[in-house]
Design a protein that fits this description.
This protein has about 60 residues and is α+β, with helices and mostly antiparallel strands. It has one helix at about 50-59; strands at about 1-5, 5-10, 20, 30, 45-50. It has one domain.
Length: about 60
């Protein structure tokens, strides 16, 4: 993950697509926490808006 000015560029933790979001606006990338927050091997991931929307629809 890298920051460039007020933008952040990263890879979606679900689909693997390269994405960009802008700080201070509706973020394009949303932080997803794993089911087991106590598991040290599972770090929070950034998911793109499409994957996050699909995940919410599946729940």
């Amino acid at each position: 993950m890298s920051e460039i000015g007020d933008k952040m560029e990263t890879v979606c933790g679900h689909c693997g697509e390269y994405r960009e979001c802008t700080w201070g606006q509706d973020p394009y990338m949303l932080e997803i926490y794993p089911e087991d927050k106590d598991d040290e091997d599972q770090a929070p991931q950034w998911w793109c808006e499409d994957c996050f929307s699909n995940r919410a629809a599946d729940v």
